[in-house]
Hints:
Number of helices of chain A: 0
Largest sheet of chain A: 7 strands, mixed
Helix content of chain A: under 10%
Oligomer: heterodimer
Strand content of chain A: over 45%
Number of strands of chain B: 11
Number of helices of chain B: 0
Distance between the termini of chain A: 38 Å
Helix content of chain B: under 10%
Amino acid sequence: SQTIHQWPATLVQPVGSPLSLECTVEGTSNPNLYWYRQAAGRGLQLLFYSVGIGQISSEVPQNLSASRPQDRQFILSSKKLLLSDSGFYLCAWSEGQGTPLHFGNGTRLTVT
Amino acid sequence: EDQVTQSPEALRLQEGESSSLNCSYTVSGLRGLFWYRQDPGKGPEFLFTLYSAGEEKEKERLKATLTKKESFLHITAPKPEDSATYLCAVGGGADGLTFGKGTHLIIQP
């Protein structure tokens, strides 16, 4: 069966520091991969998605970037965090069009 | 642009009191309507996919239905463990899903 791992579970970082969140998927090949952010009262916002190694599409201009160095690895990064980057970050995968997304358990990021 | 509106924002029920959650959507072409359950501090857990008007899916005390403009999640004789936030989403293309803000459901014993 397929599983998705996301870490760390919680993170507290000062403003201006770098960020790296990692997500890996097991049990499937060539999944579509996604990064979402969930803020209180605002719902889930799609940040990036990838349909293959090295292919990244950005949905929202921001202080963040994403990379997919391997088929089942998706990384969310920032060079300098802002207070507004605080939130709950969720990684997800799907098998392709018309199929549901399956989420990891998220990273709670607090920028201080 | 796809849009999803869920109502009510919050719902408090007594154990055993059945009710329905609403999800209204606007899409250029429906590729799928998805329901998720989210517990506090966790990622959303997939429940159902509906693809065409008239389709219904069931799982334990939950039943999802779909029309051309909205979907309902019916909860029959709920238990306290059904307390969670229920999310509705549309999409299913490579560019992911568009989510509503969810309905926060509390079932009191």
